[in-house]
Predict the structure.
Amino acid sequence: MKRHTLRGLTGLALAALLLIGLIGCQGGGQTGAVVSEDPMEIARARGLSPADVVAAVKTYQPTGTYDEYIMFASGGHSGQVLVIGIPSMRLLKVIGVFTPEPWQGWGFSKETREVLAQGNYDGKELTWGDVHHPALSETNGDYDGQFLFVNEKANARVAVIDLRDFETKQIVKNPLSLSDHGGTFVTPNTEWVIEGGQYAAPFEGYASLDQYKEKYRGLVTFWKFDRERGRIIPEQSFALELPPYWQDLCDAGKQVSEGWVFCNSFNTEMATGGVEKGNPPFEAGASQRDMDYLHVINLRKAVELVEAGRTRTIKGFKVLPLDVAAAEGVLYFIPEPKSPHGVDVSPDGNYLVVSGKLDPHATIYNFQKIQDAIANERFSGRDDYGVPILDFDAVVETQIELGLGPLHTQFDPNGYAYTSLFLESAVVRWTLGGPWTEKHGRDPWTVVDKVSVHYNIGHLAVAEGDNVNPDGRYLVAMNKWSVDRFANVGPLLPQNFQLIDIGNPNGSMQLLYDMPIALGEPHYAQIIKADKLQPWEVYPEVGWDPTTQSRHPAATRPGEERIERRGNTVEIWMTATRSHFTPEHVEVRKGDRVIWHITNIERARDATHGFALPGYNFNLSIEPGETATIEFVADRDGVFAFYCTEFCSALHLEMAGYFLVRP
Ligand code: RUQ
Ligand code: CUA
């Protein structure tokens, strides 16, 4: 197409355009018009370096071709989850999770409103979220592409997303804690979805800060997942009571360490702040000690004790008490330096990597040594709550100096680990030791490469980099600050995802692409091989309820449309297809209760219809086959035109009707 346009230009016009391009380039690298067909000439005109051209070629995804990987990223404050293609870094979907999402009608239909309401706090509706850590379901420690779990830190909630339709099916509100952070993580066969806590508080009611040590508690919650039903079963779930240290990130053991769970913590000082009262501020009070505690949890043992009835019930939820856990070998502590953030288990399950935010080292623990220390009771003491503390020297494998502010680590298949360096704004690549040494053939436990990122990286995600079979290939740096990377859009700046090529383990890492994230602070992401996902193209049958993944009781076939009145209730069974709703007139009396079902009877892919009812604050997205319901009291009289909100056909604007509310 472009070529035709070019042929149509006169030589003079072409020369003029080229000149504009070249002048523009001298003015700052970006040009409006580059008309050459010669890649090198275009690159020169746009001021691109050879590395830029390589990066462009590595990330460009021609129309109609698909990305090799899909990344599920937290949507941060938006309360949603982002679906991003890799390597193109194209945004494919925003999944409504903890907050209403108008385009998808998420939280507007009766069905989805009920799912959202599962996350209410004591009946109070919450309209934002602080989404942190997505976790793909696993089979034998490998992503299986069936479900995605994600936590919401501000209110300690966990959501279940079904990857057959990329929609949220369930939200559970943790009854015992208000905030969480160390979740979600799954056990290698997704029997348990793990939600670690964060800021300690009393499980129930009020207690003053003087009673912090006695009354405040931390916890980690094990949510039982029923894969058949695609739901968490709260009655079969339990929490493990922990000291009021601020538990942080967790990871599930895998392979040799399957059955164990590891969570790091900070504020083992049990500082309670109060800078205004002359106390040390939290950031100082919580950083006094050289060591905090890595929590080592024997999950199998915990489950045995829960099944043996050793729990207490608090607020209707099973809790395995701290004294039982400490006495029965469920819980051990390991000293970990200095306000650590995150613990990551190597793909073989042998090594645990912990980075201290205030320590340039990563500390690597050896799982077998931990087992030996437990068996031989190599304890250096117990904490104030009676939890045995394993002797640091007995369990540590090594420490490596990585750089400033190390945070999170992921892995590739070649025996390399990748750690984010927050203070240094870099990603560092280093070698694992032990059985991994022969894979990379280099010195074990050694830094081999570093690449700068922009700026203040938090998490990083490697393709399948936290499961038992990492792919490597790509790494995404999830940067908190973007500063000067994008056009100035005012004082609030987007975050910056940077795609990095890690495909050549013997060469250096290469920065490929910047993607601004403009709706919140994503924390974590996971990257799955795209062909592991097998989502539906349309719903399996006409009249489908996505919230139950089964036939909707109000499914309506063509010819079955009707309006029925029962006393003050008016119920409508409507169908939608290109380009009309049936019926088109709906008339009620003011004060009537209206129950309105709409079935999209289309079978064509992408033939989604919207349904807007202005004045009553409804918008629905009704995908092919779906039935959705709105329910409300017609408390305003007047005439309300309802219409389709997806430009579905040439006569889309005619896809409308009147809702008449008689006074
Ligand atoms: S976090 S930037 Cu909320 Cu996972 Cu470490
Ligand atoms: Cu249906 Cu527009």
Notes: The longest strand covers residues 231-242.
